Every structure is written in C-alpha cells, then in structure tokens.
Amino acid sequence: MPWLSVTIFLPLIGVPILLFWRGIPDPVARGVALLASTTTFVVSLGLLGAFDASTPGYQLVERATWVRSIGLQYLVGVDGVSLFLVMLTTLIIPIGILASGSVTRNVRLFMACSLLLETAVLGAFLSLDLLLFFVFFEALLFPMYLLIGMWGSGRRVYAAVKFFLFTMFGSAFLLVAILFLFSRASGQFGRGTFELTKLQHLSLPPATERWLFLAFFIAFAVKVPLVPLHTWLPDAHTEAPTKGSIILAALLLKTGTYGLIRFNLVLFPEASHYFANAVSILALVGIIYGAIVAMMQSDLKRLIAYSSVSHLGFVVLGIFAFTQQGMSGGVLQMVNHGISTGALFLLVGLLYDRTHTRQLDELGGLADITPLLAGSFMVAALSSIGLPGLNNFVGEFLVILGTFTANRAFGVLAATGVVLGAIYLLWAYQRTWHGPPNERYRGLADLSRVEITAVAPLLVVMLVLGVYPKLLLDRINPTTNKIVQQVQVVRHDQRLLARGGG
Amino acid sequence: MLDLIWLVPALPLAGAAINLFFGKRLGKAAGALAAAVMTAAFVIAVFVVAELLKLPAEQRAHVRHLWEWIASGSFRVGVDLLVDPLSATMILVVTGVGTLIHIYSIGYMDGDPRYGRFFSYLNLFVFFMLMLVLAQNYLLLYLGWEGVGLCSYLLIGFWYERASAANAAKKAFITTRIGDTGMMIGIALIFVKLGTLDFGQVLGPGAGRLSEGAATAIALLLFAGAVGKSAQFPLHVWLPDAMEGPTPVSALIHAATMVTAGVYLVARSHALFEASTVALPIVLVVGLATALYAALASIGQFDIKRALAYSTMSQLGFMFFAAGMGYYAGAMLLLVCHAFYKALLFLSAGSVMHGTGDEADMRNMGGLAREMPATTAAFTVGALALAGIPPLAGFFAKDHIVSFAATSGRDLAWVLASVGAFLSALYITRPVFMAFFGTRRAEGHAHESPPVMTVPLALLAVGAVGAGVLGLSVAGGFLARFLEPSVGTAAEGAVGPSEAVLVGISVALAILAVAVAWYVWGSGRVDWLGIPERHPGLAGALGTAFYINALYSWLVQFPGKGFGRLVARGDEQVIDGMVNDVGAGVERLSRVAPRWETGRVRSYALSFAVGAFAVLVVLGLRL
Q1: pTM of the model
Q2: Do B567 and A430 touch (CB under 8 A)?
Q3: Considering only CB atoms, which chain A residues are within 8 Å of B67?
Q4: Cys-Cys with B276: which of A482, B185, B216, B271 at CB 3.0–4.6 Å?
Q5: ipTM
Q6: Whole-number Å distance between alpha carbons of A365 and A431
Q7: Range of the domain at A369
Q8: H-run or E-run covering B62
Q9: Cβ(B401)–Cβ(B328) below 8 Å
Q10: C-alpha distances in Å from residue A111, one per residue of A27, A140, A265, A348, A499
Q11: Looking at residue A61, what is its pLDDT?
Q12: Which residues pair with A430 in a beta bridge?
C-alpha cells in the first residue's frame, strides 16, 4: 500500500464535496471534514505500523516522474524526523475541526481550507524532491491566509497580509536557491535534478554553499520564527480563529525547523558548521527574548504566541548543537510543542468562546466556574513549563544536554529560559483562573462532551510521551544519529583539510 | 519483597488519580481512601525495610528496574528504584508521618468544598516525594524534585480565591525553580563528565575520576537546588509565605518531608561533595548562617505558622550544618526527629486554628490550655523536643551535631551553633507561653479538636519523645550504623571538651532559654505586646526577617518588570515598527507603479499560483 500518498491526499476527498455542494448544511460540512481527517489519522496509524524503527534512512519511498525534461518528479519518503510530524498533523487537524464549533460563517469553505491545509502540510513533511517540497510549502500559505483573513478577529486582514508577505519574502530566496541547485546539478551530473538525495552529493565551493545556506535559512527562519523575523507571529496568532492558531503553532512553525534539518543540514553541512554559533545565538535570543516579551503581554493568546518564539528557539538550538541528544531533543520538541502549545491555543479558544475576551485583566476567578477547562489549562501549562513526567521535559532536557555537551555557555543560557517559562505561564494562569469567583462569568458552561473529546487526547498524549517517550525516541534516534554523523564527518574532513593546508 | 518497592509510590499515585477524577462523587470517602492508600504504602514500606535489614550490611542496596525512560545516543536513564538504608529511612518517614497527616486532614479539611481535590494533591505529593527518595539516578530524582514542587504550588495555592495564597504559590514555585535550574545544569554536567546519571556509577567509581574543579561545580550546582527546595539563605523567601496553604500541608510538605529533600540530596551525593575541597565548607556556612538568621526571625513573628516556618528553616540549617561537617548520619537523625516534632507542632497549631475559627495571630490567643488541653500538651511536647530538653528526640539530634562541631575542632562553628541552639529553644517556647498560657486576649470560645485530629497528634508526640533512641551516641547510634553503607561514618574527633561537659553546656543553654522565654512571654512581668512600639527598629527587622523580601523587590522584581516592559515596547515599536514602515514605503511606491500592481496580496498570490501551476501543467503535457 502506498502509505504516504494515501495519507497525503486522503484529506482532499472531502474538498470537492465541500466546494461544489453549495447548499451543504453546516453540520454535514463539519461531519465531512471530520470524517476525512479522522480517516487520515487512522491511515497514518497504519503508516506508523509500517515504519521500520531500525532503518535510519528514508522509507516507504514512492516515486513518479512528472516532468522528465526538467527532472521534476513526485518523490515522497519518510524517516525518523518526519514520521511524528506526520502523526502530529493527522492528530491535530481533526482536533482543530472538533474545536471549531464557534465558526458559523462559511463553514463549508472553512472546512475545505482545513483539509487543503492538511494535504499541503503533509506533503511538505514528506517530499524528498525540492521543487515538490516548494510546491507544498507554498500551497499551505493560501488556505492559511484565508483562515486568518476570513475567520479571524479584529485586525485580521492586517495580520493575514503580514503573515503572507513575511513568508513570501522568505520563499523568494528559497526558490532562487533551489533553481540554482538545479542548474549546478545539470552542470555536475549532466542532468538537472531536484532530488534531495542526489543534490546532497553536489560539491559546492564553500562561499557558494554559505550563500545557499543563507537563502534556505531565511525562508525557514521566518517560519520558525527566529527573532527578529518573528513579528508576524503574534499578530497572526492573535487574530486567527482558534483552529488557525492551533495549526499555526502546531504545524506551520514546524515546517521551518523541519526544513532546517532536512535541507540546510543535509545539503550544506559545511555551511551549517560555519553558521552554527550564529544560529545558536539567534535561537538563544529567541528563547530569552520571547519569554520576556511573553511575560509582559496582556492578551492571553499573544502571550502564548510569544511563548512559541521561546520554545521554537529550543528546537533550533538543539538542531545546531550537532549532537545526538540535541538533534533528537529538537525533533521531539517539535512534536511536543505541537501538542502542548496546540492544546494551549485550543483551550484559550474555548475560553474566549465563553468570555469573549482574552485580556488578562478582564479574566480571573474562573477556576471554580469552569473547573475542567481550568484543570486542562493547568496540565497544558505544566507541560509547556517543562514539568518532568509530561512531554516537554524530555525534549527540553535532551536539548539542554545536547547543547551543553557542545557549548557550556549555550547550555546554561538555555536552562535559564526554563525559569522564565515558569514565570510567564504561572502568572498567566493565576490571572486567568485564580481569585474569587468572578460574578461577571457566573453560570458559564464548563467543557462540553465534544470539547472534552478534542482536549482529552492531547492531555493523554502529554502524559504518555512524558512517561514513555521511548515510543518516539526509538524511531527518531536512528535517523538523527545518521544526520549528526553526516554533519560530523564534514567537520572532521574540514579539520583534516585545515591541518593539511596549514 | 524488595521487588515490591514500586507499590510504595504506586499506591499514593493510584489514590491521587481516583480522587482527582472521582473525588466529588466519593464525598467524605475521599479522605478515607487517601489515608487508606497511605497506610498500605507505609505497611509495605515497613516490610521492605524489614527485608532489607535481613541482608548483610554491605549488600543492602537493591535496584528495581521498571522501564527505560529516556534514551538517545549514549544517554540512557531508566525508571529505576533504589532501596538502600538512606532511601529506606526516607520512605519510612514520608509514609509514616504522611499517613498520620492524612488522617488528621480528614478532620481538618472537613467541609471544604474541594475536599476530594485536596486529598488528590496530597497523595500526589507523597508519590513524587517517594520517587525523589527512591530514584536511582539524578534525572528520576529530578522528576520527584519538580513533582513535589508542583504539589507544593497546588497546595499552597489551594485556597486560590485569596490573592495572598495564589501569590505565595507562584512565589514558591518560581523561587525554587531558580535553584532547580542550577541543579539541572549540574545534572547535565555530571553526564558530560561521567557519561551516566546512575547513582551506582556516579557516586561509586565516578566521583573519584572528577577533577577538583568539575566536582566543585557539580556539587555547588546540585546544592543550588537544595538551597531553593530546603529554603536556605538566599532562596528562603518562599517558605514563610507558603504558610498560606492549609496547615496539614505546612506540616507534611513545608516541615516534615519536601523541604528536607535538599538535605537528602547532599547526603545522597556526599561522594560528589567530598570530591571537592570547598563544596562542603560552603554547605556548612550556608547551613549555619540560615540556622541563626531564621532563628532570630522566628522570634519576631506573631503569626504562629510563620514562627514555625522560620523555625523549620533554622532546623534545616542545622541539618546542612551537620552535612557540611561530613556528619551525614547526624543530619539524617535530625531530619527524622524534626519530621516528628515539627509535624506535631504544625498540626497542633492547626488544631488551635481549627478550634478558634482560623486565628493564627498569637497576640489574639493566650490561655488556650484550659479549653484545648490535648492540643496544648501536644504543642508543648513538640516545643520541648525541639528545644533540646532531654530525653526528648531533639536533644539527641541537636546535641550530637553541636558536640560534633566541638570535637572535630571547629570552635567558632561550635560557639555559633550553641547560640543557634539557645535561640531555637527561645523561639519555640515563646509561642507556648504566648498561645497556651496566661490569659485569653480575644473574645469567643475555643474548642478542642475531634479525635481524628488529636489521635495523630498523640502518635506524633510519641515519636517526638522517643525518636532519640535511634541515635543515642554521636557515631554509634542505631541510625548511624544503619546508614553507614549509604553515607559512611563520620570521623569522630577527639579534641575539645569532653562529651559530658558538652552535654552539660547544651542542656544548660536549653534550660536557660526556656527560662528567658518564660520571663518575657510567660511571667506577665514584661509587656511584650508593646515591644513593637518601644523598639520599632528591632521588631521591624525581626518581623520582616531583615527586610530581605523588600530588598528582593527592589533589586529584582521592579527592575525586572521595568526591563520586561522596555523589551516588550521595543518589540512592538522598533522591530515591528520597522516592518510596518517597510510596508508603508512599498505601498507609496506602488501608487506610481502600473495599474496591475494592485498592491493587494490576494491578487499577487493568485497570479503567482496560477502562473506556477500553468507552467507545471504545460511542461507536464509536453512530456
């Protein structure tokens, strides 16, 4: 069974129904989207089963020629880095659909966008051909842009345009770099190709490699986002509908960090070393800067958006430590952040549906009114804070360990980011839930059964991955080990060269 | 039997889960259930320890591997439990004292709207505390360490309707987390240097391989965690505020168990501390300084729980002082005895509050002995035990430590520790006279607490009286011999005055302190209520524990907030401002550009997408 293609394109089955049946009743539209996305999740479980944990390279590869003359092909494959991002995607999309009860305008288009987005994200995570990746990477912008621009709140158009321009800005560099690689390949191999595993063997002069690295890096740094390219994120998050925020945080940002591993490290190992310290410092700035700015926010959603800047800094830091623990921790943290921050955005959305405000000074005293919502928020916040026993701790610790092994000062700075996380989240928790019962909100309903169905899986995953992360690590480790070794070999060669030359 | 050790933490965990989800439906049964799982855990712990005692001393270390927790590359840690004399001592204290406090809570928390939740958190705390002391590697210990911190946060803020409780909870979590960060870096450093986090490796052959510098760094980083968790100077500020929690919480978490985790950590890691020449002296100084500082602060408190909180801090200081001298068995003896008498003191104070409508200010008490005889007896026994009156538990525990300082030739430390011991006896007999004797200074009727509360008091009192039998001599007591495989024996010095002289001085100081306390607060000859007016400087300094909180506000909190605001403003106006300026510039340019550049992203995007797709389709068809 072509597991990957089925997983990628299964969500699209629902799209024609949603697009062409104009009078579709809202509940049916929701049902169609939910059915398509949950089926995708079930199929992805089969994919998980078919995955061979002992193989470090790409598996379940599918190839089809598209445009032979220019070497364009449909090429997908999965490895330990992408496997759980795929699982995260198929889990998050149906949860987001469940949590979209408050969307009442244009439900069918909303649902169609959700499914399109799922296909685009899955395609981006699974493509092994650079042009194919680029197509999916760009394709996910449109539905995301619509989600923010059409169903967002307040300054939604400003936020949507900002999001779009930022990412397009980055993509322009990416496209040029990809085309450059293609032309280099036709020079060296006799025929052009966009295939990742072939381009890996391209020999590039160091200066060229560094320019290419930077072009890829800018595209992905915008998505991560790294400071100072981050300012689209708080606006996009704040104005996006709940589902939009969940997808942004859980999936979209991961295309950035994923791209760094999949393309920057693998294609430009020498340049990766060259820029490693600079990138690590940017990541550290993100960790601390994001946390400090988060602390000062008065809008709960904005606060969590800035916390993402901080958390994604950990991922990048781990990746660029070039150690097994750092890399595995970084990959694990991508999944963990998706779960925890996805859950936080979901819960803030559910809170907003009830209180119609996200301003911290208007909230407070809700713990006794909506205890289930408060309890779930507490668990998600603790996960995000990095409490051992929950998911985030495992990845965060591996990142700190891996970074510390490579560079003591970076490791120490990253660890201090952990304290800041506790400060802003506990303070936010206190201002939202603690205090005497708020008369203004008396009588608000606690989580409904549908909402519990959306929240509970995330909480369960937090606990399971915190106590038994082996489920993931056993499958992630072989691949990260391979990547780290590839990168290390290059460093080794460089040293030999340097010694020989000197 | 030893392999059943996992049941000891598993039972409270199960209790916590059941009460979390079904606590409301269980109603009154929630408390009974929580106490029942605790009792069961205690019984199993007793059997496990009995089994351990059957083994020859050098074989008393049993590891139970449950599953692999985190592994990546050469890094590997398991969920492994270690039963050895040190962890055995701790689990008996935690489950034993814990069970009594659970039973007491059934009465104390009666009628609270979140009754089930309380017991869920309390059980969860015990689970994490047991993981902390049973862990066989530093990362699992860290799990317990953070877990007890979480439960402390949840329970200090249990009555979160009150802003003071919510603030205190947050302060506790964040202050201790500052120390914990140091500890985490220390753990990372252990792995980098030794390639493992298992106690067996790190503390056995590992510690010897460390360089002086590495050992010092690791030991001090771990100690940073201990300073936070055990409320030692300068990370102590959270503990007095933690008294916002329900009193059984203060007794269990903030006196008998969690706060002693730092002492346990030092005792457990003694090989690392000993591999450095400066680590232990620093532990000694921090401990002794905190012991004196907190003892003075305790004398300035009028809130009975805050007075006890400073007392706990001071006693923990004594434990670190002992550990800093390498006298771990002495630290552990004080830990065990303190667990009994401090739990007793707190629960008696809780009984007072329960009987007087939540009065905690000792200025509004007085003469409670008539209406609350059982509570009065309990508190007095606890106070005398702490004061070091022979033959109660505190006498042996504290006297050994003070004597050890003298006989090991640390004269200045001995003098200061003796002063500390005198102050301890003074600050702890003060509330006895203020609250229970003399005349009642407030309206209203006080009533004695129900048996479900007074029976645990009686049992703890037995411990406070008799726990001294565990350590009848400095190095040869039962506990010291039992702990020897875990912590070694302290080299007993032979310098300084003889044992008999030392004991004499010690007892004389304790009796003198009690006498002074009686004269000032019990005899009626001193108008102590007027002291704050007559000596505002002194009372202010003692009452606020030397203004450290205010100092931290000025040094950290206010500048921190200002800096944060500045950064946030910068993000909004400088970084994002530039983005918007670029946007506005492009827009101005576009006005002069041809019409098809509409400046609207949607049309750009659409044309881009259509164009790209068209190119691909055309190319595809040509094939």
Answers
A1: 0.92
A2: no
A3: 468, 470
A4: B216
A5: 0.92
A6: 8
A7: 275-502
A8: strand B62-72
A9: no
A10: 11, 14, 36, 21, 59
A11: 93
A12: none
